[in-house]
Amino acid sequence: MTASVREETGATVEQPSLGPAALRRGLSRLVAHPLFQLALLALLLLGAGQLSSGTVQIASFVLIAAIFAQSINLLTGLAGQISLGHAGFFGIGAYCSGILVKSWGFDVAAAVPVAVLLAAATGWLLSFPANRVRDVYLAMMTLGFGMVFFEIVREWNDVTGGTMGLPGVPAAALRTLTILGFRMDGLDYFRLVLLVTALVLLLMRNLTQSRIGRAFFAIHVSEVAAGSIGIPSGSTKQLAYAVSGALAGLAGALYAHLVGYLGPESFALPRSIEVLVIAIVGGLGSIAGQVLSATLFTFLPERLQVFAEWQFIAYGLILTFSLLVLPKGIGGLLFEPPRFIKPRVLRRAAGLTADPAALRPQGEAAESLVVEGVTMRFGGLVAVDGVSLRLEPGRITALVGPNGSGKSTLVNVVSGIYRPTAGKVRFGERDITGLSDHQVAAARVVRTFQDPRLVPHFTVRENLLLGAHRLLRHSGAAATLGLPGAIAEEAEHLAMAEAVLALAGLTEVADRPIDTLPYGTRRMAEVGRALLARPRVILLDEPAAGLSEKEMERLAQLIRDMKAMGLAILLIDHHMDFLAELVDEVVVLDSGRMIYHGDIAGMRRDPQVIAAYLGDEATHA
Amino acid sequence: MDDFFFSLVLAGISVGSVYALVALGLNLTFWTTKTLNFGQGSLMMLCAMLTVFLSSQGVAMALAVLGSLLVIAALGMFIERWTVRPALRSGGSTMGWVVSTLGFGIFLQGMAAKYFGSQAVAFPEVIFTAQDYVTLFGQYVSLQYLVVLAVAVVLILLLELFVRKTVWGQAVHAVSLDPELALVQGMPVRRIILGSFMLSSVLAGVAGVLIAQIGGTVDPAFGFDLVLLGFVAAVLGGMGSSLGALAGGLVVGLISKLVGGYVSTAAEHGIAFALLMLMLAVRPQGLFGRPEVSKA
Amino acid sequence: MQTIGRRALGGMAAGLAVLAAPGVLRAQGGTIKLGFTAALTGPFNEFGEGIRRGAEIAVEECNKAGGIRGRMAELAEVLDDQLVPDRAVQNLRRILDNKEIVGLMCPSGSGPTLAIADMAQADGRPFINPQAQTPAIVYPNGVDKPPRPNLFSISIGNLAESEKLGLALAGFSRIGVVHESTGYGVTGADLVRKAILARKPGARVTLESYNQRAQDMTAQLVRVQRAGAEAMLVIGLGADFAVIRRNMSRLNMNLALFGAAGAVTVPYIEGAGDLVAGTRAVNHAAFGRRPMHAEAQKFVDLYRAKHGTDRWYGPDAANPLVSLAGTVGSGYDCINLLLDAIRRSGGTSPAEMIAALDQTKDFAGATIPAVSFTPQNHVALKVEDLGTYEMLKRGDRVVLELRD
Questions:
Q1: Which of residues 233-292 of C touch A (CB under 8 A)?
Q2: Residue C226: its chain B contacts at CB < 8 A?
Q3: What backbone torsions phi and psi does residue B23 show, to the nearest 5 degrees?
Q4: Could you tell me which chains touch chain A, where touching means 3 or more CB pairs under 8 A?
Q5: Which residues does the UniProt record annotate as the domain ABC transporter (chain A) (predicted)?
């Protein structure tokens, strides 16, 4: 909810320069192909036997770094939360598993899950203070977390071995590792870690293409917009921290049983920075990019010992200029941007048809949204002053007034972004005053914004499906595992999204990333997204601004459709002709006060309105 | 009040003023771009290293310091132009500038290790020596630390005067509130931002020289830990507040020394970061900061 | 300062020359291959680069004398870990993959050495530890239990050092120990306290820790002061010791000041300047004795011939820095001990070499005049091999004089 939440409007129009684009497409298809994945896995599983044990060990380090990088990818790349203290989670996983196995006699197969859970719980706990801050403050807080963890590990001698570290953890390197009674050497362990990594990558891809992953991106781009369609930023972030912590903890636990010695220096700030570097150079959001980057940063320093002297310099240069040279990292260089709906869901939805009539509120009492004497004060400024109005089902109410008259503020109050200084907002029997934005959306009061707030790199279809997030009932685990129930439910809502795409005339551009499309199209997409959240009340904040004549017609039709569905509609706009054809009644605000309420013809005659509003807007309209 | 307590308090004020000086430098870029230079420690190090190098080549100390500061100022320009600006322009909500400024710091550290060696080298006494002190309440107060404190206080006064009383200060204020609006109003926003990075770097250089002479040595990793504590001081006092930087620095210094003295010296370092997390959780805007304007 | 870089490069070139050495040897079953990982670059390379130089000199001397039974020695795997434990583990795995490597040296520093110790033991090939001080490296289960069979140490162990420091501090009854918060500092401080209390049960020992590269030690110092200490011991690295010494000066603290071997290095002398006068420190006695014993003198001459009076050697050709023994000499001795074991046993299998090492008796080392190992005792350095030095100002130079 701060001013710093900014939309990415810089449209990256990709020129079809055939060479690299075709290469990217080819590579992406190859990497995404299940046969290729299986072949690669088989090759590594079988081929590892031919390698020296040193190479196998380094390869194990690579895999662990890849899992660790996914944890940053999830938190920073997907959910947009920076972390400078991830070594803390890594360390928690490592020490927990190491101590449980070494001192408590746990089997590795039991200790690792416990370690993962502990790291996840820590992440979940950290999310509460972290949720209070953002940007640079978040960087500081996570930095502090990492430092505090490091100091605790160093001083808590009885448990962690303090500065002397924890030697003799059963590990592949020491040939002391047994898992469930099986003795494991370095090669066996590599194979095990490889399977774990493959699983993590698979789940990570599923997650990215699920309601959870899309919700992460939504809060990443704009927490306010996410809230407006019922995605709670707080609990979404908690989940992101917990899952990210779990992944880092997993990497740490695997690390513990790879090397067999845990010293505090291995979990200090440099490791947090290293993983951030791997993730960023790999390309945030790109799963395959992370793996390649982990390989690069783990293998090369070990193989190119001669350049040790240059390591800092090279490292520094890569970090400094990676953004300039490779803004989307290795992943962006080699692969096409990822997509966020599972192909299985797309295929399945293609076979379904949905009737937009299903969007009509059904079997519920027709209830009105009532605003009673709402006042909103910012310091000395009264933005909204005792406004009352009523939005009835199947009626369109226009909210007009000069700039700064309090229209958007009123919408912000109703939609839960501001808590009013005085007054009440009721929906039916329910008092929704001061509920948070996602709760208001859950109460089926949904809004759009003056400036469309969509996820820029999502396609139109993906953005629309985001609207249905609130209604998807399957659990995050089901989504991540790609269970049939989750697929079916998502496909059902996607089919509805297709129907709304058709209604809004967006079917042709459904596969285009939203940031490559003109402004008018984005507006329509945002209205469509709001509609998919199944509102009973919809608040449209200047939806017609910047639209062409033709687009305005399309929008008007869509609004009429919504009216026909029985939605209560509040429409902010300046175009009087546009409003005249649509609205049932008009509310006029001036300096926060309601100066007129009635039909549009009466408004045009109202002297107060003419003085305050039409005086300077008549020419415009 | 015994000597023990006084010694700790004086030490807390001494190191606190060091943190404050570092935090002041960090604040300057925060004013104009809401960014921090995560490689600030390397600038401190490089300025001290260059001073050692120049004076070992027979350059007079004052000239050596001045020359080093010029180099550092130029690096500040470079950092703005090549690390911060591209990151901000890419509109990254993932804070690319954290990575790029940190990267440049690591690069400088690597260069220093390559060309000046990675071992600690002796740093000459620039102003006063370790044996120079005055007595206060029967305690010895080091003049080297007093210089740091004095520089910090004078800088705060100058910065406050600058922001409140001069046209350029007003312009900086405007840029910090809304750079786009400032640009529309015809302010030289680019130059103001560039200037803030140069000045911030120069402050880092000054801090580097003043601090290196206290410890007596400087090595390529010098400054890194200090900047972390500078962050703590800046956040505690409220990012962007000059007075806050001093207050934050003193609070960190005093609390860590008192905890070190009365509880355990092992906890001295950890407590600063625990304090940082606590402050961010309870009052993110810090002691003297105003909460960020909330607007949907 | 710039010359160091160039010399390091020169050293590297020399190393490469050794690696590329005569192909004649292949006819006689190849070279005797040795290896190690150490901090060759990075902030702690004073020690890592040091042992590499020592190792190179040892190999060159061996080959100049015609090798061992016609086989030349070779440093086949020398890798850089920058004192990062993970990197040490990765490097060592790579070195151990080379089955032709017959003997190894432990990394420079306790952190990496602790990280690789279990792995080294599991491998079974002989390792000699040049620098890491923690007893756990050789005696993982306590010093009264048997050592790791294949790990030997010639470093200034915490045990012998604390014994010697206990002796040196015997004259005081209130002692402050300020140590860095690392494995080296924490174990060292703990052992020193035990050594002092064993000698003088009534003594009051205060332990205070600090983080490496802390800029202010006032809290530690005033706590020591409040405990009424008459003497203070610092266990840490030279640059931090300089900070402490200057901090003492600011607090106008005057008490007898002692340093552990790691503290009395060039950064301390450069960083603390004139203030170092009077500081007493424990270090190898060999380089302080005049005349030096033959092997020490030989090594010193070889080093000076090869590298001149550089940072490791110190400016005074006649009097090398005492720290040269620990930084460079220990690497030289490690490699010589491995080669000596091969010479005596005639074989290069781990069993043969370890058996030979276990029987090492009064081997003349540069840093330790008589190195002996037994199957129960894998630590060569004894209290007598250490000396207490006092730092004195002679003209504009600081010299260390052996006191006992």
A1: none
A2: 4
A3: -65, -35
A4: B, C
A5: 369-616
Contact yes or no for C90 and A173 at CB 8 A:
no
Mutate to test the interface with C, among B268, B269, B271 (most CBs of C within 10 A): B268
3-state helix vs strand vs coil in chain B, percent to 5 = 75, 5, 20
A265 and C111 within 8 Å at the Cβ level: the answer is yes
- The alpha-helical segments, DSSP class H, found in A455-518 are 460-467, 476-481, 484-503
CATH architecture of B3-282: Orthogonal Bundle (1.10)
Q: What is the ipTM of this complex?
A: 0.87
Question: Each residue of B162-218: pLDDT tens digit?
Answer: 878 888 888 887 887 777 778 777 778 888 889 889 999 999 999 898 888 887 888
> Which 3-state string (H, E, C) describes B67-134?
HHHHHHHHHHHHHHHHHHHHHHHCCCCCCHHHHHHHHHHHHHHHHHHHHHCCCCEECCCCCCCCCCEE
Compare CB distances from A136 to B36, B94, B99 and report the shortest one's residue: B36
In chain A, which among 114-143 make CB contacts under 8 A with chain B? 128-129, 132-133, 135-137, 139-141, 143
Mutant choice from C4, C49, C249, C250 vs B, greatest count of B C-beta within 10 A: C250
Same domain, C310 and C375: yes
pLDDT tens per residue across all 404 residues of chain C: 343 444 444 444 444 444 444 433 333 468 999 999 998 887 778 888 999 999 999 999 999 998 888 899 999 989 988 888 888 888 898 899 888 999 999 998 888 898 899 889 988 999 999 988 888 889 988 888 999 999 999 999 888 889 899 888 888 989 999 998 887 888 889 999 999 998 888 889 999 989 888 888 888 898 898 888 999 999 988 888 988 998 888 888 889 999 988 777 788 888 888 888 889 989 989 888 888 899 999 999 999 999 998 888 888 888 888 888 888 999 999 999 999 999 998 888 999 999 999 998 999 999 999 999 999 999 999 888 999 999 888 887 888 888 87
**Which domain does C282 fall in, by range?**
160-287+387-402
Does A437 or B139 have the greater pLDDT score?
Answer: A437
CATH number at residue C221: 3.40.50.2300
Question: From CA A113, how far away is CA A120, in angstroms rounded?
Answer: 10
Do C283 and C294 belong together in one domain? no
| Chain A residues with beta carbon closer than 8 angstroms to that of C117 | 167, 261
Q: Is residue C337 located within the same domain as residue C200?
A: no
C213 and C301 within one domain = no
Task: For residue B16, give how far its alpha carbon lies from the nearest alpha carbon of chain A (Å).
Answer: 18
CA dist A414 and A435 (Å) reads: 9
Q: Does C11 touch chain B (CB under 8 A)?
A: no
| Residue to test with chain A: of B81, B93, B100, most A Cβ within 10 A | B93
CB contact B270 to C (< 8 Å): no
For residue C18, what pLDDT is reported? 42
Q: Which ranges in chain A are annotated with CATH 3.40.50.300?
A: 369-457+519-617
- Read off φ and ψ for residue B285, nearest 5 degrees: -80, 0
Crossing angle (nearest 10°) for helices A53-72 and A86-104: 130
Two tokens, residue B263: 């509880």
Is the minimum CB–CB distance between C197 and chain A shorter than 8 Å?
A: no
Question: C282 and C304 share a domain?
Answer: no
pLDDT tens digit string along A299-310? 877 777 666 667
Cα A532 to Cα A224: distance, rounded to the nearest angstrom: 17
> Are C187 and C170 in the same domain?
yes
Cβ-defined contact of C243 to B216 (cutoff 8 Å): yes
- Is there a contact between C32 and C41 (Cβ–Cβ < 8 Å)? no
* Neighboring chain C residues of B13 at a CB cutoff of 8 Å: none
Structure token pair of residue A102? 């070494």
CA distance C5 to chain B (A): 7
**What pTM did the predictor assign?**
0.86
- How many structural domains comprise chain C? 2
Residue C70's CB: how many other CB atoms inside 10 A?
A: 11
